Amino acid sequence: MSIWEYANPVKFMRVSGAVLPWVVAGAALCTLTGLVWGFLTPEDYKQGSTVKIIFLHVPAALMAINIWLMMLVTSLIWLIRRHHVSALAARAAAPVGAVMTLIALITGAIWGQPMWGTWWEWDPRLTSFLILFLFYLGYMALWGAVEDADSAADLTGVLCLVGSVFALLSRYAVNFWNQGLHQGASLSMAPGERMSAVYRYPLYLTMLGFFLLFVALLLIRTRTEIRRRRLAALLARENRA
Questions:
Q1: Could you list the residue ranges that cross the membrane (predicted)?
Q2: 195-231 burial: b if 16+ Cβ within 10 Å, else e
Q3: d(CA 70, CA 78)
Q4: Do residues 120 and 112 lie in contact, with contact meaning Cβ atoms separated by under 8 Å?
Q5: How far apart are CA 241 and CA 239, in angstroms?
Q6: How many contiguous H segments (helices) and E segments (strands) does the chain have?
Q7: Residues near 118 by beta carbon (within 8 Å), at least 6 away in sequence
Q8: Which long-range contacts (CB under 8 A, 24 or more apart) does 53-57 make?
Q9: DSSP 3-state assignment of 193?
C-alpha cells in the first residue's frame, strides 16, 4: 500500500468522506472547549485580561504559517509527480490560510494596542506576516486569472516556493531581529520561560482544535474542487458531442 494511492480522486473522495464527520466533530469539540476554557482563565499579573487573546492569536498564527508550508509540499508533489489531487488541495487550502493570517493580524493589533500603545508597528514579524497575507491573496488571484487548470497549478506552485521564504520569516523573525517589539515564542521549553499551566493547557487544546478545523475545511474544499473539475469535464464532453 502506497500513500500515492490517495492521489487517486476516487479513493480520496471515499476515504475523506468517511473521516470527515469525525474530524468536524473533533474540531468543534476541541476549539469550543479550548476557547471557553481559555477565556475563563484568570487575568495575567502583567497583561491583565488582554493575555486571553493568545487563545485565538497563537493558533491562528501557527496555522497561517503551516498552511502555507503544506501548500508548498502539495505544490511540489504536483510539480514533480503531477498528481491533480495535490494541486487541488493546495488551491483549497489557500483561502483558509488567508483567513487564519487575517485573524492573526487583527488579534495581534488588538493585543498590541494596550501593550505597545499602537495598533500597528513595522515590526519584523508583523511585516513578514502582512507580506504573507498578500502572498495568499496573490496565490488565489493567480488561480482565478489562468484558465487552464494545469498551467495555473504550475504558476501557483512557483509562487508558493517564493512565498515560503516569508512563511519561514514569519516563524523565525523574532529570532533573526532582536530589535522587534514582538515577544518571543509563546510556548518555550527554555528554563524560566515556560508558560503557566493555567494558560498552556487550554492553548494546546485550541491549537489542536484549529488544526482539526483546518483539516476539516481542507477536506471539504478539496472535495468541492474535485467535483467542480468533474463537472467541467462533463460539460466540455457534452459541448464536443
A1: 20-40, 60-80, 92-114, 126-146, 158-178, 198-220
A2: beeebeebbebbbbbbbbbbbbbbbbbbbebbeeeee
A3: 12
A4: yes
A5: 5
A6: 6, 0
A7: 112
A8: 53/107, 53/110, 53/111, 54/111, 54/186, 54/199, 54/203, 55/202, 55/203, 55/206, 56/103, 56/107, 56/206, 57/103, 57/104, 57/107, 57/108, 57/111
A9: coil
Q: Name the grid cell of 14.
A: 471515499
Length of the chain: 241
One-character DSSP codes across 123-189: -HHHHHHHHHHHHHHHHHHHHHH-SSHHHHHHHHHHHHHHHHHHHHHHHHHHHH-TT-SS-S-SS--
Reading the block at residue 87, the C-alpha cell is 494541486
Say whether 122 sits in a helix, a strand or coil: coil
Per-residue pLDDT tens digits of the chain, which is 241 residues long: 556 666 678 888 899 899 999 999 999 999 999 999 988 887 766 666 777 888 999 999 999 989 999 999 999 998 888 888 899 999 999 999 999 999 999 998 888 777 777 777 777 778 888 888 999 999 999 998 988 888 999 999 988 988 887 777 666 655 555 555 555 555 554 444 566 778 888 999 999 999 999 999 999 999 998 998 888 778 777 777 6
Among candidate residues 206, 183, 199, the one with its CA nearest the CA of residue 56: 206
The grid cell for 173 is 523573525
Cell of 233: 469535464
Contacts (Cβ under 8 Å, ≥6 apart) of 62: 207, 210
